[in-house]
Specification:
Chain A is an all-alpha fold. Chain A has 2 domains: about 55 residues, no CATH class; about 200 residues, Orthogonal Bundle (MetI-like fold), CATH 1.10.3720. Chain A contains 15 helices and no strands. In chain A, helix 11 crosses helix 15. Chain A starts with about 30 loop residues before the first helix and ends in a 6-residue tail after the last helix. The N terminus of chain A is likely disordered. Chain B has 2 domains: about 60 residues, no CATH class; about 230 residues, MetI-like (MetI-like fold). By secondary structure, chain B is mainly α. The longest helix of chain B is centred in the N-terminal third of the chain and has 36 residues. Chain C is of the alpha+beta class. Chain C folds into 2 domains: about 230 residues, Rossmann fold; about 120 residues, Nucleic acid-binding proteins (OB fold (Dihydrolipoamide Acetyltransferase, E2P)). In chain C, helix 3 packs across helix 4. Classes of the chains: A mainly alpha, B mainly alpha, C alpha+beta. Chains in contact: A-B, A-C, B-C.
Chain lengths: ~300, ~325, ~350
């Protein structure tokens, strides 16, 4: 199976084949095991706390949030903050915009990466090395270095405050091209030869052989692209003007500036804004880990 | 593909293997090259328009002083503007703040990610639940995390404000002594999930029998950690350091949401300064100089890390 | 006093019993091989001796003391792993001296011991290389050097030759035996390869499905397999085993099997009669079968394999069961599809109870 650079186990796999029972074992007396659980639990609580308190506060009333000592558990959950975040806070629209733009970006990045990777992995052509270096060079220029010129460009194209304007600068990525190229390079050469003799054109080979075999890498890239596009903040901030096109990240900014007597709405907004990501990552854990660690672990 | 196409192909294949290894310009090769260019064009166009062109444009902008009002012509000032900006107090402050931010967030982020990964790597029942919790912050975006902390640090009703005993006092985010720290803590928390995942993956890649061999060889747990785990993990740590450094230099969202560059520019990182120059001061020229400086600093940082830190990475070869 | 002893050792993983009531003793300076197919429990048994697994029941003793609760590092044993488990980021020298450093041996002594171990295994010139730069055979020697450097009470080896190519394997086998004699070492050696087991072990312990099938010197195991499993496992080509029913005729007992009747020698016949068995399995090794026109058992030749120095005649009985005969090359070879008669000296017959698989002793 074609591998990318990382040797990956899914996030939920136990390190060893057998699970040692946590009670008495010659190696670890019961008290040490208990101490380990305690430490893990404390850390988990600390890390989870901001998320926890956000959910809690979204279900409280503003005066409960402001009360001292503050309540840490909603004894009488109120869900109206969510409805208000959705309607008056425009979160419904923001989520839609985010999905549309992120969808466009992910699909575009996948396609452009697959195409470019195919060219570099399977084709021979003049200037191949030069063009490869060009792709490499794009990795060295962070978006933040060129964003305001891009603003002028997009603006001049008349695409300010549009879906197209939101997606345009991100339609291709050098990182994606390299990731998929790695996966394509591992396609068994016999398959290529057989396909050639069978008369398979490149297009058919790409979609019938190369891409299916590179599925793990492509899935990883998809998750990675989604994360990056969904979380993009700077660009949507400057290229959109109103709720019609604002994405959910920038929408959060609006929410955070609401007054204290609406503070639970802010929290509800954060929950709504984060829900899609949580669900996505829960379902695609394996691909996520792959995408994030490509290059991190020397295989 | 038609039958004749296949036959043609086979014929060319046979021909090419008969001939000496010189590149024959066959029809097939030109078709291949055309296809390649066609495949590369979409990405290439995007790169040229949105990466290379704006990058080059920065240099042009930098040489011109932007007029205070749009519509007026700009004046060519050559390298003077660049010199002025680079020596300006604001610029140097931004560089310093960015470096400080990096120093606050990257080492601690790596250390915590590593510590959590090691703790969660044990054979314990239910450890998977902990692993899921430790990686959970990867599902929070920078904006979400920033809004959470912003609200929790609200000077009147924020929970963290209360716990810090600062109810009614000046907001942590408006206090020059604590603002950058608060931004850093937010960032560290938000990055924890990613750091944990990366370190965990590195840890999983260490073969179990190395630890078993070390146990039989007589190494205590402490020794095993420093002589086996850490060296085997050093490429991963190095990677995290390089990538972390670059991400720290690119930080923007959390500053915009938490402090907007203040108080007293104490959190005015480079990207935020660029944003300000363009959208508040309408000063493209100055912004361009900042942008070029940002690019060079990221290059230098990466180069520096490659040069000096990579030495200490124990590769297997 | 035995170096290593297992007494009633059982290991369970959930519902799976990997090792079932294993009792055996390994004497001082003995080379004992744990042999068996994949999953038979041999590696688990070895790991329990090492201390990497804890027995569910039973005791393990090393050097006379019970070590169930003792950490691997305090058992004074050394282990060579199948994958060698060399520390990739350390040099060869670093790898070899690691166990000494862990025990805080003085630098001077350390250097001497490392040099000695390296010299013994011919690694002198490779000390500053890293494992990634070595060949498979070299890495294996580094793993060995790391094991011998401490002069432990016993060496545990988990299929150390399986990652080497065939030629190297044969060479290294001989070197390992030589090494053991020279160091007067006690070795517990795990393998699935019966040739390795036969050539290297003083005694072989054959395991299947977690249970000990037979323990004894290689000749003994070959000549007198204790049950059907051992009979079929040891020997290449494997022993021919044919199922048949017991017939009394006159004073003696014969076994009726597809293709003919095989009379049993008196001593075995008495045991068979005493046990009152009806169905048995008769075993005879390919080299003990002779083809003759009036052989009692008839078979049809299917394939004649020529190996140069001998031939393997593959034939089938009436009911399709396969019989292999080893024939010296200087004899006339039968043709395919030829009918042959098989006969064997009764001394070379093995009889097993068809139900239990146990050998029926005379």
């Amino acid at each position: 199976m074609p591998a990318d650079t990382a040797t990956v186990a899914p996030l939920d796999s136990t390190p060893d084949a057998e699970e040692v029972h946590a009670e008495r074992d010659r190696v670890t007396p019961a008290i040490r095991v208990a101490a380990r659980y305690a430490l893990l639990t404390v850390l988990a609580l600390i890390i989870l706390f901001p998320i926890y308190i956000t959910v809690v506060n979204s279900l409280l009333q503003p005066d409960q949030i402001a009360s001292r000592p503050p309540s840490l558990f909603p004894t009488d959950p109120q869900w109206d903050a969510y409805t208000r975040a959705w309607d008056q806070g425009h979160l419904g629209r923001y989520l839609l915009n985010s999905f549309v733009v992120t969808g466009i970006i992910v699909i575009a990045q996948l396609l452009t990466s697959i195409f470019a990777a195919y060219a570099f992995a399977f084709l021979d052509f003049p200037l191949k090395r030069t063009l490869f270096f060009v792709f490499l060079a794009t990795l060295m220029i962070p978006f933040e270095v060129v964003f305001f010129t891009n603003f002028n460009t997009v603006n001049d194209l008349g695409l300010y405050n549009t879906y197209a304007g939101l997606a345009l600068p991100f339609l291709a990525t050098g990182f994606g091209a390299f990731l998929i190229r790695q996966a394509f390079l591992v396609t068994p050469t016999d398959l290529r030869d057989a396909a050639q003799l069978d008369g398979y054109g490149h297009w058919r080979f790409m979609w019938r052989v190369a891409v299916p075999l590179a599925r793990p890498a492509i899935a990883a890239l998809a998750v990675f692209s989604f994360l990056a596009a969904w979380g993009e903040y700077l660009w949507p901030l400057i290229i959109t003007e109103d709720a019609e096109f604002r994405t959910v990240q920038v929408g959060l900014r609006q929410l955070s500036r609401t007054s204290i007597d609406q503070i639970n709405v802010t929290f509800a907004g954060v929950v709504l804004a984060s829900l899609p990501l949580f669900v996505l990552l829960l379902v695609f854990q394996k691909q996520l880990v792959r995408g994030l660690t490509a290059g991190a672990v020397k295989g | 593909m038609t039958d004749t196409g296949a036959a043609e192909r086979a014929l060319e294949l046979a021909e090419e293997t008969r001939l000496p290894r010189r590149r024959r310009w066959t029809r097939r090769r030109s078709k291949e090259a055309l296809l390649a260019y066609a495949l590369l064009t979409p990405a290439f166009v995007v790169f040229v328009v949105f990466i290379f062109y704006p990058f080059a444009r920065n240099f042009e902008y930098a040489l011109y002083k932007t007029p205070p009002f749009p519509g007026l012509p700009r004046t060519y000032v050559g390298f003077d503007q660049i010199g002025d900006v680079l020596s300006s107090h604001d610029f140097l402050n931004s560089v310093w703040v960015t470096i400080l931010f990096l120093l606050y967030t990257v080492p601690i982020g790596i250390f915590l990610g590593l510590a959590l990964a090691v703790l969660a790597h044990q054979k314990l029942r239910g450890v998977n639940a902990y692993r899921t919790i430790f990686s959970s912050t990867v599902a929070t975006s920078v904006a979400a995390a920033s809004v959470i902390f912003f609200t929790l640090l609200n000077p009147q009703v924020g929970l963290f404000t209360y716990w810090l005993g600062r109810d009614g006092e000046i907001s942590v985010l408006l206090d020059p002594k604590t603002a950058l720290l608060a931004v850093s803590v937010t960032t560290i928390w938000q990055n924890l999930g990613l750091s944990f995942i990366v370190m965990s993956a590195g840890l999983q890649a260490i073969p179990d029998d190395l630890y078993e061999a070390a146990r039989v060889d007589g190494a205590s747990a402490w020794r095993r950690f420093w002589r086996v785990t850490v060296p085997m993990l050093s490429p991963t740590i190095f990677f995290a350091s390089v990538v972390g450094g670059i991400l720290a230099f690119r930080a923007f969202g959390q500053i915009d949401l938490l402090t907007e560059g203040g108080p007293n520019q104490k959190t005015n990182v480079l990207v935020y300064a660029i944003y300000r120059e363009v959208f508040r001061n309408n000063n493209d020229g100055v912004a361009a100089v900042y942008a070029i400086a940002l690019f060079l600093l990221v290059m230098m940082l990466t180069f520096f890390q490659m040069r000096f830190l990579e030495r200490r990475v124990s590769y297997a070869r | 006093m035995s170096r290593v002893a297992l007494d009633g050792v059982t290991k369970q993983f959930g519902d799976v019993v990997a090792v079932d009531d294993l009792t055996l003793e390994i004497a001082d300076e003995e080379f004992l091989v744990l042999l068996g197919p994949s999953g038979c429990g041999k590696s688990t048994a070895l790991r329990m001796i090492a201390g990497l697994e804890v027995p569910s029941r039973g005791t393990i003793s090393i050097g006379g003391r019970v070590v169930n609760d003792v950490e691997p590092k305090d058992r004074d044993i050394a282990m060579v792993f199948q994958s060698y488990a060399l520390y990739p980021h350390m040099t060869v020298r670093g790898n070899i001296e690691f166990p000494l450093k862990s025990r805080h041996v003085e630098k001077q002594d350390r250097d001497q011991l490392v040099a000695d171990a390296a010299a013994t295994l011919g690694l002198g010139e490779l000390l500053d290389r890293k494992p990634g730069q070595l060949s498979g055979g070299q890495r294996q020697r580094v793993a060995l050097a790391r094991a011998i450097v401490r002069s432990p009470l016993a060496f545990l080896m988990d299929e150390p030759l399986s990652n080497l190519d065939a030629k190297l394997r044969v060479q290294t086998r001989a070197e390992l035996i030589e090494l053991q004699r020279r160091l007067a070492a006690t070795i517990v050696y795990v393998t699935h390869d019966q040739v390795e087991a036969m050539t290297m072990g003083d005694r072989i312990a054959i395991l299947n499905e977690g249970r000990l099938q037979q323990l004894g010197p290689s000749q003994g195991v070959y000549a007198k397999p204790a049950n059907l499993f051992v009979a079929r496992f040891i020997g290449t080509p494997p022993m021919n085993t044919v199922r048949g029913s017991v017939h009394r005729n006159g004073a003696g007992i014969s076994v009726s099997l597809a293709g003919g009747m095989v009379p049993l020698p008196d001593d075995i016949a008495r045991s068979v009669a005493a046990r009152d068995v009806v169905e048995v399995v008769v075993g005879v090794r390919p080299e003990h079968l002779v083809m003759s026109h009036d052989g009692a058992v008839r078979a049809l030749v299917t394939v004649v394999e020529s190996l140069g120095h001998e031939r393997h005649i593959v034939s089938r009985l009436e009911d399709g069961q396969m019989i292999i005969v080893r024939q010296p090359s200087d004899e006339v070879a039968p043709r395919e599809a030829e009918a042959i008669g098989l006969v064997a000296d009764p001394v070379h017959l093995h009889v097993f109870d068809a139900e239990s698989g146990e050998r029926i002793e005379p």
